[in-house]
Amino acid sequence: MEKAKKIKLYIGLFYLIFIGLFLYYFFSKFSIQELTSYDFIKNNRDLFFELKQSNLFLVVILFMLFVIVWVLAAGFISPIAIFAGFFFGKWLGAFILLLGMSIGATFLYIFANYFLKEFIKGRFLNKFKNLELKFKKSEFMYLLAYRFIGGIPFAISNVLPCIFNVKTSNFFWATLIGVIPQIFLVCALGSGLEKIIDENLEAPTLKQLIFSSDIYIPLVVFFCLVVLTIFLRKIFYKS
After folding, report:
1. What is the pLDDT of residue 109?
2. What phi, psi does 198 have (nearest 5°)?
3. What is the pLDDT of residue 11?
4. Average pLDDT rounded to a whole number, residues 44-51
5. In sequence order, which residues have a C-beta less than 8 Å from that of residue 12 and are 6 or more positions away?
6. Which residues contact 34 (CB under 8 A, 6 or more apart)?
7. Could you say which of 37, 43, 146, 187 is the most buried, measured as most Cβ atoms within 10 Å of its Cβ?
8. Is residue 21 part of a domain?
9. Structural domains of the chain, count
10. Domain residues for 148?
11. Is the full-model pTM beyond 0.85?
């Protein structure tokens, strides 16, 4: 038993070190200021598109691998969703991101279920005890609803189902299907930004951005979706 605990501890430490090194390497190459700079995006846009046109399959695979690692590293989804829509377009970008996210989230769930299950139960079980019976009634449907309504940071929502002992296959498919609306809308926003950047040499004003149909339509729909999920959240998490 002690030997098994030590093995789990070593693997857990290796995971944390790996994630730490990945984040250090990434942010040593790109600063937050660069990543959010209009000039940086504009100047590198052509390079990104040349890479995509020269070998689309390879670029798709590399980006999907990056998404998987990013999810394992508990990274925020919104920035890469915008980038996916910007670089690949809303349809292909959403597909790649959804698949990569679902694989990464499933790997994280498996890891947490094996190494962190007792810790997660001790930390969250009392708070979400009311969901335990719901998941036992219809695991996949409630997991699908859990993914759709959100309300919990994505990284935490990936490990929380350890409490309910959900099947790995159900976790994967519920993740893949449940987050489609949100991811598609954010990718559509990224695609709209790419179109605006393509049409403007200078950084567009806030007014130009807001009144562009490629921007305000996804934003309005996304806002409506947020309002809907807030309403559903009150029902879903009700004791």
Report:
1. 92
2. -65, -30
3. 63
4. 76
5. 115, 116
6. 40
7. 187
8. no
9. 1
10. 31-236
11. no
